[in-house]
Design brief:
The protein is α+β, with helices and mostly antiparallel strands and about 200 residues long. About 30% of the residues lie in helices and about 15% in strands. It has helices spanning about 5-20, 50-60, 110-120, 130, 155-160, 170-175, 180-190; strands at about 65-70, 75, 80-85, 90-95, 135-140, 145-150. Strand 3 and strand 4 form a beta hairpin. Helix 1 packs across helix 2. The radius of gyration is 17 Å and the shape is globular.
Amino acid sequence: MSRTFSKFALSCLAASAAAGTLAFSAPAAARTVTVAVSASFTSLDPYDAPDILTRLASKSFYEGLFTFNSKMEPVPELAEGYETSPDAKVWTVTLKKGVKFHDGSEFTADAVKANFDRLLNPDNKLSRYNVYKFIEKVEVLDPYKVRFTLQSPLATFVRRLAMTNPQMICPSLLKDAHGLEGKKVTAFNACGTGPYTLVS
């Protein structure tokens, strides 16, 4: 079993434990965990994953700009912080420096724009398009700063960014991930900044 799938299994165990359905104490020497689940995940692409099981699996490979803490409050993950306009239509996110994708490239504002431009292109037919189509445009201000302009005010925009959908995929993987045929690229391959890399 690859270490990536092991991480996926641990994610499922953690989710079950958090729900109060499972309690366990893993031995210190354990390296592999096998878990039975009621359904298999549908894709490795968090932007094209309608179910929570799939999105939990993708968190093994990917990180987002924000995530939720144990109190379900949005906190920075790949972002350092943000500023918003008084009308809550323009959001400027500052990124952490020195973060590397699994392919060795640097995580920058260009990568954020590439991910959201792909999501917001209706021709790509991604299942999470409707959840984020309220974003009017994404602009790179400098290598570590990106600006989101929304179609209408949304005070909870950072919470929307903290959801498990908008995870940062390597631009090198995204270059061939356009249109219906491109969905296969991200469905069967993964390249992000998360704790595990895909072996098989």
